[in-house]
Amino acid sequence: MACAGLSQRPAALLWGWLLLGCSWGPGPPGVGAAPRFSAAYVLDDAGGLGRRFDGIGAVSGGGATSRLLVNYQEPYRSQILDYLFKPNFGAALHILKVEIGGDGQSTDGTEPSHMHYEDDENYFRGYEWWLMKEAKKRNPQIKLIGLPWTFPAWIGKGENWPYDHPDVTVYYIVSWILGAKQYHDLDIDYIGIWNERAFNSKYIKLLRYTLDKHGLQQVRIIASDRLWEPISFVLLLDSELHGVVDVIGAHYPGTKTVLNAILTGKKLWSSEDYSTFNDEVGAGCWARILNQNYVNGKMTSTIAWNLVASYYEELPYGRCGLMTAQEPWSGHYKVEAPIWITAHTTQFTQPGWSYLQVDGHLKGGGSFVALTDGLGNLTIIIETMSHNHSRCIRPLLLPFSVSPQRATFYLKGSFYMVKTLQVWHSRLGFESAHTTLFQQLHPVKVWKGSFSLDLNVDEVYTLTTLKTGQKHIYPDPPPSQPFPSNYKDDFNIRNPPFSEAPNFADQTGVFEYFINTSDPGDHVFTLRQVVVQRPITWSSDADQTISIIGNFQWENFTVTCDIYMEQPRDGGVFVAGRVDNGGIYVRSTKGVFFWVFADGTYRVTGDLGGEEILMKGDSGVRAHAWHTLTLNIQGTSASGLLNGYPLWENVTITEPSNGWAAIGTRSFEFAQFDNFHVEAS
Ligand SMILES: *[C@@H]1O[C@H](CO)[C@@H](O)[C@H](O)[C@H]1NC(C)=O
Ligand SMILES: *[C@@H]1O[C@H](CO)[C@@H](O)[C@H](O)[C@H]1NC(C)=O
Ligand SMILES: *[C@@H]1O[C@H](CO)[C@@H](O)[C@H](O)[C@H]1NC(C)=O
Ligand SMILES: *[C@@H]1O[C@H](CO)[C@@H](O)[C@H](O)[C@H]1NC(C)=O
Ligand SMILES: *[C@@H]1O[C@H](CO)[C@@H](O)[C@H](O)[C@H]1NC(C)=O
């Protein structure tokens, strides 16, 4: 029916040979008739090109968003990485931005620092090194960015602030860049300042000076990963700072920039954006901002938070990744719609291409961008996202309307000779059943430099001279499964591939594999909490440390763990169940917490903060000895065992009714854990 509608139009209206009319989907009556809006757009490079395109990317971290990815079994883990990074495969990302772990909570967890303490240096912690290497393995051209959210305490010498001693912070950051090269052969392309916090001009200048001194001239500086101001204004006033900042990176700019930013003459990036639940509306958000960040705001790079939703879904901003991989225990993952929206741009452009100078607003609503490699290739990306199909989590999106429309493109200058364009198409519904993603259609024939396209709402088209596009699909991964209800870890691993134990998600503090070679035998391999001073925070870390694990739906539990306090005077450790919060909300976490303290007492509390005391008494437990804690929660009743003997019982629990299991410490202190076991329902 839709195709018939096309052929009924007067021939004079049809510029070029059009085989795209079949894309009409269900819509309001009359959609198949001639569109109300019809307009012509000229693509010409004769008068020069627009801004240089710097690529589309995503953030791993900020924080701990790739935590569960590393524990996937093969072949699933490699499949996920292929969907993200492999050229002409899936999302084919141009940029990977990683958190420089700083031991503090950075949204969905903490990431370990390469320097927990002043005299400490270790470039094998965490999973961001591994992820950067996996990305480079698949795409050697991928650009790498590092950015800190938090810093270990020693950087601030007692202050919750990284700029009082800029030389110390510069040393710490430059060490990370040098370590990336020395231990992993990774060249970092861009370095940021401090995520969504204040910048300091003296610090930025010293950073540039020190980078250059170490032969790192190629490392470019992004500032300030917050708003357009005040950095733009300061760059206009301070010519020395202007000389050292390469990119102005703004977060969640809502596709707009400000005059001062343009006046700086700097590259403008949306250096963090998206952050939206990865369903069809999230995909619409992503499609809209990928185009309109340039069309409205002259931004030449857009970077999604986050790369892959690999954290427990009930943590803040669950599933706000380009795809979902949050079940290493089952191998299940999902290639969500934003992956294929990304492919519309990434598979047909590269950093170093240029935008064409053209107003990319479509007359009937929506937008287009056109890019060229300067060697005759042309890629046009069109999006017609409607308002309620493309809302991002922030900022507020003012109302607008988008209508079905006809767009006629005139190719001029070096594109006049283009004869055919490859066509890739997506149409977003509100359910995946009504959605088509990244389908290749018949090429469009360009006749005398012109072709027309009938656009419906909520569509994305890529028209390109490149024939390299591919939509790869692996066989379905295993089905989704809940976290195993009977789970043990004795931490007895000799050459751990990662510094953290599988599935434990640190929310304050850092829990690492530890080897005590002088232990007589039972506890040589343990898990140790290693952050001993409150870090320079980015959000409200708790005053206690905590690592969560398991299934948020769990109600009835037995959690058992061997514990070892290392702090003799005021040390304390806990095991917990029904833990109901984490991430940036970790301070207000509730649950059932069974604590023992080095002064020989115990407590049962309803919160991590320890204010809601349900039971207390003497335990006889001391530091520097191993003990076994068991917490049992059934319905509204909880009981606790010490070394297998009942210590307390019949404590009434009304809420929370469910949550994760957890281990942790009373303060920022060393403590060890061994033989963790949870059985739950
Ligand atoms: C387009 O890109 C391809 C692949 O990079 C290249 O081989 C070709 O020379 C470019 N130019 C044209 C006009 O195809
Ligand atoms: C979005 O708008 C369309 C058209 O007005 C409407 O049919 C649809 O129900 C809306 N969907 C949502 C989720 O609001
Ligand atoms: C290592 O084990 C020995 C022997 O049990 C013990 O004395 C020492 O405190 C342990 N060290 C740590 C850091 O746990
Ligand atoms: C938890 O235990 C209570 C009391 O024994 C029971 O009523 C409830 O159904 C159990 N919940 C689950 C999910 O098994
Ligand atoms: C706990 O409750 C059970 C069942 O109500 C009861 O038999 C037992 O005596 C109670 N124990 C204590 C220490 O109160």
UniProtKB/TrEMBL annotation:
Top-level lineage group: Eukaryota
Question: Where would I find the Glycosyl hydrolase family 59 catalytic domain in this sequence?
Answer: 53-347
Q: Which UniProt keywords apply?
A: Disulfide bond, Glycoprotein, Glycosidase, Hydrolase, Lipid degradation, Lipid metabolism, Lysosome, Signal, Sphingolipid metabolism
Ranges for domain Glycosyl hydrolase family 59 C-terminal lectin come to: 506-680
The principal location of this protein is other
Cleaved signal peptide residues: 1-33
Active-site residue list: E196, E272
Pfam families the UniProt entry points to: Glyco_hydro_59 (PF02057), Glyco_hydro_59_C (PF21708), Glyco_hydro_59M (PF17387)
What catalytic activity is recorded?
A: beta-D-galactosyl-(1<->1)-sphing-4-enine + H2O = sphing-4-enine + D-galactose; a D-galactosylceramide + H2O = an N-acyl-sphingoid base + D-galactose
E.C. number(s) listed in UniProt: 3.2.1.46
- Record's subcellular location: Lysosome
Give this protein's Gene Ontology molecular function annotations. Answer: galactosylceramidase activity
One cellular component GO annotation, for this chain's record?
A: membrane
Domain Glycosyl hydrolase family 59 central span(s) in chain numbering: 355-470
Q: What biological-process terms (Gene Ontology) are attached?
A: galactosylceramide catabolic process
Spell out the PANTHER family in the cross-references: GALACTOCEREBROSIDASE
**Protein family:** Belongs to the glycosyl hydrolase 59 family.
Q: What is this protein called?
A: Galactocerebrosidase
**Annotated gene:** GALC
